[in-house]
Amino acid sequence: MVLLLEIKLFGMYQFTYEDLFVRPDIYPWLANVYVDEEYRGSGVCRRMLESVKQNAKQNTEFNELWLYTKYIDLYDKFGWEYVGNIDTCIEEQRSQRLYKLKV
After folding, report:
1. pLDDT > 80? residue 1
2. Predicted confidence band at 8 (pLDDT cuts at 50, 70, 90)?
């Protein structure tokens, strides 16, 4: 999903089969969730995350989605189940939160 205002990208996410190289055994992923700083706090993220389940049902054959994030309590509000922390081996923030969503 990509949200554009005129020609400016202000929000997006994507479904992908690979996102976390240390866990190739779990897929598919919700990845690259992004909201432009100018639009944060305006409800854009809420609208995007509320569309994930329906978008996945209509456009994929996925039964579940996975994601990892540094954010606490964001995805819980949208039905994502916290699975536990995961070592991402990403230098900037190795320990992140792993979530699963039933579609």
Report:
1. no
2. confident
Burial class (CB in 10 A: 0-12, 13-18, 19+), 69: middle
Contact between 13 and 34 (Cβ < 8 Å): yes
* Local structure of 77: helix, strand or coil: helix
Name the nearest CA neighbour of 72 among 102, 90, 33, 99.
99
What is the C-alpha to C-alpha distance for residues 19 and 26, in angstroms, rounded to an integer? 9
Q: 12: which strand partners?
A: 2, 34
62-89 pLDDT per residue, tens: 999 999 999 999 999 999 999 999 999 9
Identify the pLDDT of residue 9: 78
Residues, the chain: 103
**Sheet strand arrangement including 81-87:** 2-5, 8-16, 29-35, 64-69, 95-102, 81-87
pLDDT score of 3:
59
